[in-house]
């Protein structure tokens, strides 16, 4: 009997191994709590950033970082997977009483919900299922709108400079560059002819294995924006690897695989727990990835 063959490249993840967080400034920590914790059902990190000037929100292995300040306005959207999708509409509606008068909105479809935060940042919450493998709670993608004709150069940037697995895709939503950032996570750069709002400084954080190699290629092109510490640097400009043409801006907080916070275990709560219906031993939620 002939041996079964497999596409061994299908399981490659490339140099970028994990999308850890998306950072948005928010002007009001109380409204942020009402949105991210009460409405969405996520968990405030109990160990770090527990004051009034910043908040870290856990969802699975990933986070939102929410320092106090002038609000950022994302140009795209963040994709999230939730385990309790069927009860999500009730939470979203209940939060109306705290978030009315802001840009908060929500629309629920069969397998996803489009939600806008009090300051206009968009998220799509997905039902856990086959589209996202084993993930039951987490951040499978961040999507960005890019000018028509830029997706190919962006894919080449990530392949040639960041050493990531990146490919072009085409569907009813148009051409997009999909960059793999570890198991079950992607950055999606989708081409559009619509006007794209100016970049205002929000950022993403990723971990890489070839920390020095990526740094050298970025530094050669003069696009390192911050030398943070031995474990971290930042860059903001995505450029064509051949011509150097600026293709897009989004700050990347690039961390080494040896960073002390890599794969830090995160606390996730079970948002179904209520005082009147409390069930002992069910406070925590243990997501699959």
What CATH architecture label applies?
Roll
Number of beta-strand segments: 16
Main sheet properties: 8 strands, mixed
Strand content: 25-35%
Enumerate the strands of the largest sheet in spatial order, edge to edge or round the barrel.
2-3-4-1-13-16-15-14
Query: What is the CATH class name?
Result: Alpha Beta
What brief labels describe this structure?
single chain, eight-stranded mixed β-sheet, globular, 289 residues, alpha+beta
Write the layout of secondary structure elements.
Elements: E1 16-23, H1 29-39, E2 43-44, E3 56-59, E4 62-65, E5 77-82, H2 88-94, H3 96-99, E6 105-108, E7 112-116, E8 122-127, E9 138-147, H4 151-160, E10 166-171, E11 174-180, E12 186-192, E13 203-208, H5 211-220, E14 224-229, E15 232-239, E16 246-256
What's a concise summary of this model?
The chain has 289 residues and is α+β, with helices and mostly antiparallel strands.
Structure description:
The chain has helices at residues 29-39, 88-94, 96-99, 151-160, 211-220, and strands at 16-23, 43-44, 56-59, 62-65, 77-82, 105-108, 112-116, 122-127, 138-147, 166-171, 174-180, 186-192, 203-208, 224-229, 232-239, 246-256. With 289 residues, it is of the alpha+beta class. It has one domain (14-256): 2,3-Dihydroxybiphenyl 1,2-Dioxygenase, domain 1 (Roll). The strands form two sheets. The protein has an eight-stranded mixed β-sheet with strand order 2-3-4-1-13-16-15-14. It has an eight-stranded mixed β-sheet with strand order 6-7-8-5-9-12-11-10, covered by helices on one side. A hairpin with a 2-residue loop joins β14 and β15. The longest helix has 11 residues, at 29-39. It is globular, with a radius of gyration of 19 Å.
């Amino acid at each position: 009997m002939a041996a079964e063959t497999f596409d061994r490249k299908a399981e490659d993840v490339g140099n970028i191994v994990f999308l850890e967080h998306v950072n948005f400034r928010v002007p009001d920590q109380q409204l942020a709590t009402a949105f991210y914790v009460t409405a969405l059902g996520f968990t405030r990190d109990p160990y770090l950033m527990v004051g009034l000037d910043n908040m870290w929100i856990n969802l699975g292995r990933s986070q939102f970082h929410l320092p106090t300040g002038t609000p950022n306005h994302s140009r795209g959207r963040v994709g999230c997977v939730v385990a309790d999708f069927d009860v999500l509409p009730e939470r979203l509606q209940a939060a109306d009483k705290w978030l009315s008068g802001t840009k908060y909105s929500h629309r629920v479809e069969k397998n996803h919900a489009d939600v806008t935060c009090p300051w206009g940042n968009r998220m799509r919450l997905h039902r856990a299922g086959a589209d996202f493998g084993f993930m039951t709670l987490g951040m499978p993608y961040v999507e960005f709108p890019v000018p028509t004709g830029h997706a190919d150069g962006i894919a080449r940037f990530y392949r040639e400079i960041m050493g990531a697995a990146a490919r072009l895709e085409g569907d009813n939503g148009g051409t997009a560059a999909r960059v793999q950032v570890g198991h079950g996570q992607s950055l999606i750069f989708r081409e559009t002819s619509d006007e794209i709002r100016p970049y205002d400084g929000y950022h993403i954080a990723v971990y890489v294995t070839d920390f020095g190699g990526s740094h050298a290629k970025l530094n050669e092109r003069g696009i390192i924006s911050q030398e943070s510490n031995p474990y971290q640097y930042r860059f903001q400009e995505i450029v064509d690897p051949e011509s150097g043409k600026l293709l897009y801006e989004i700050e990347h907080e690039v961390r080494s695989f040896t960073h002390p916070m890599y794969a830090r275990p995160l606390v996730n709560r079970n948002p179904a727990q209520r005082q009147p219906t409390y069930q002992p031993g069910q406070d925590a939620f243990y997501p699959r990835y």
